[in-house]
Hints:
The chain is α/β, with parallel strands linked by helices. It has helices at about 45-50, 75-80, 95-110, 125-135, 150-165, 180-195, 205-215, 230-235, 240-245, and strands at about 5-15, 20-30, 35, 60-65, 65-70, 80-85, 170-175, 200-205, 215-220, 225-230.
Amino acid sequence: MSEAVLTLKGLYKRFGALEVTRDVSLDLRPGEIHALIGPNGAGKSTLIAQIAGALSPDAGQIHLGKRDITGLSVAHRARLGLGRSFQVSSLAEPLSVIRNVMIGVQAMAGHSFHFWTPIDRDERLLVPARAVLGRMQLDHRADTPVAELSHGERRQVEVACALALEPKALLLDEPMAGLGPEGTAHLTDLLETLKREVPILLIEHDMDAVFRLADRLSVLVAGSVIAHGDGDTIRRDPRVRDAYLGD
Ligand SMILES: Nc1ncnc2c1ncn2[C@@H]1O[C@H](COP(=O)(O)OP(=O)(O)O)[C@@H](O)[C@H]1O
Ligand SMILES: [Mg+2]
């Protein structure tokens, strides 16, 4: 069995009287999409926040590869290879698509970068940024300002910006939200290809997309993982049907 890229062990988190994460353990393996599904308020986004480092768990550990990252900052985790896209867009609207991705590449290169070339023409930023745009099928939009993009294209740029940081694992929180059927189908295709390079922990409400994409699923209800398995196992599980999928 291949080694997990990301491992959560016995995570707990409470907000006052509300236990939002109860003994959550799961892992993400190379080449897979692991979907985290569950009703609104189940604790999916707060779990992602704990993995990304925006929230500290009260107990438990998070490992990226073999490294314990539980106590590290958001920025430190990102540098170690934890990528995420945000539910609220963090793109610079007036700037071109390629420029947005170059900012990500630049952040990755960090303080070792020296600016003796104007950023727009710096091949060390342009070459990797173009490569990432190609992976997200956005080459033709490279010079378009983000403000002119469709909703679906923005989502692609957000994922491209996360990829610019060369993540070892990618966290996506409802990437299909607000996309029409066409946008959802296109992003689904892209993620299906992308997972071979970067394993993805995917939160998504669109169940067609989830069942098409996910190699494994974990179902979160009231902070606890109530079921775990492949698509068929999850679809048949009576507790899952009861708590989430319905009939
Ligand atoms: N900062 C916070 N303080 C208090 N309660 C919070 C906070 N963030 C989220 N919650 C609560 O935690 C629960 C889980 O929220 P969330 O993780 O956003 O659920 P999901 O993403 O599964 O819809 C919800 O009841 C939510 O109201
Ligand atoms: Mg959420």
